[in-house]
Amino acid sequence: MELYLDTANLEEIREIAAWGVLSGVTTNPTLVAKEFAARGGQLSREGLEAHLRAICEAVEGPVSAEVTALDAEGMVAEGRRLAAIHPQIVVKLPTTEEGLKACKRLTAEGVRVNMTLVFSANQALLAARAGAAYLSPFLGRVDDISWDGGEVLREIVEMIQVQDLSAKVIAASIRHPRHVTEAALLGADIATLPHAVFKQLLKHPLTDIGLARFLADWERVRP
Ligand code: E4P
């Protein structure tokens, strides 16, 4: 399972990219808005494009950028603009009727699409049939409503395999390291993680204690 960062923050991307384990980035309007608000900056089209270009240069791999139009015509126009920014850009579309129409049209033009806000296997089936390269089921948000995000992911992964569909499954809305383990065991192709969860993956108190003990023992005999 590949690991993506779910962020629009360049420092976070550069930090994790330096670990050598980062395969891509996903953004969404909330993450982009947070990024620009934190800088006190107003969001302009040029500013957004420059920022997405910088993200593409900071990571080797796909970078999902989401449209904000709600109608297929608007999504296609926005998707074309986003895709033209950089070859690594994948256009993210919501899983709605209009999103399906836009997905079909953009994929026919050779634009890679990530269908987002997937909460059921049937939505995933529709998105895959519309030609999506990626499907993003949201684990955490399903768990938030006391349903089972892992079960939704399990059905989607199995369905993609049984139906021999080509879409890759991105486990999204990851809240904690157990979600990552669960997604990997269930066979997700990719998990997209917030920066904090990426850091948590690596941390273990026994690693810190073990390293401190090794160094203390070494100090006692060091030549
Ligand atoms: C997926 O690509 C989304 O950006 C993301 O995972 C949403 O997660 P959230 O529920 O933490 O906002």
From TrEMBL:
Belongs to the transaldolase family. Type 3B subfamily. One of its GO terms (molecular function) is transaldolase activity. InterPro entries: Aldolase_TIM, TAL/FSA, Transaldolase_3B, Transaldolase_3B/F6P_aldolase, Transaldolase_AS, TSA/FSA_arc/bac. It comes from the Bacteria. It catalyses: D-sedoheptulose 7-phosphate + D-glyceraldehyde 3-phosphate = D-erythrose 4-phosphate + beta-D-fructose 6-phosphate. This is Probable transaldolase. SUPFAM superfamilies: Aldolase. Keywords: Cytoplasm, Pentose shunt, Schiff base, Transferase. Its EC number is 2.2.1.2. The active site is at 92 (schiff-base intermediate with substrate). It is found in: Cytoplasm. Transaldolase is important for the balance of metabolites in the pentose-phosphate pathway. GO terms for biological process: carbohydrate metabolic process; pentose-phosphate shunt. It holds the Pfam family TAL_FSA. One of its GO terms (cellular component) is cytoplasm. Pathway: Carbohydrate degradation; pentose phosphate pathway; D-glyceraldehyde 3-phosphate and beta-D-fructose 6-phosphate from D-ribose 5-phosphate and D-xylulose 5-phosphate (non-oxidative stage): step 2/3. The keyword Cytoplasm applies. It comes from Thermus thermamylovorans.
